[in-house]
Design goal:
130 residues, mainly alpha, three-stranded antiparallel sheet, Helix-turn-helix domain-containing protein
């Protein structure tokens, strides 16, 4: 089951959320403009701390002038709302996966490694078709 709100995001997810390239976000991470947390070998953007900092209007973060703090908060809210919509349809997508022919399900599982990954691929296919 997917979470309605993710407390952390990958650099790629955060870049999509705020509308910049991964390279820009990677630079922000290296310069410590945005808070991150390391989980295992992965460095993830700490959305909870970022939101708290933006909401408190504290000067902990020194984001570049490219994106204003309010714009980052707005984009993060939009991303969260998009995630909520996806969650509402997640069970339907999993059911549609189960209804596919067995050979197709097996091929998707082999290609993506898990049912959730295969379902996420299906979501991405649906989104790109629209």
């Amino acid at each position: 089951m997917r979470n309605l709100f993710a407390p952390v995001m990958t650099v790629a997810q955060f870049a999509e959320c705020v509308g910049v390239s991964e390279g820009v976000v990677t630079g922000w991470v290296k310069r410590e403009y945005i808070p991150t947390v390391k989980i295992g070998r992965h460095r993830l953007v700490n959305i909870i701390l970022l939101s708290a900092t933006l909401n408190d209007d504290a000067d902990i973060l020194d984001l570049p002038n490219i994106i204003e703090r309010e714009e980052v908060a707005t984009k993060a809210t939009e991303y969260q709302q998009k995630s909520n919509v996806e969650h509402q349809h997640w069970e339907e997508i999993k059911e549609s996966f189960d209804m596919r022919p067995r050979n197709e399900r097996r091929a998707l599982l082999k290609k993506h490694g898990s049912k959730d990954a295969a379902c996420q691929w299906l979501v991405n296919q649906l989104n790109s078709a629209q």
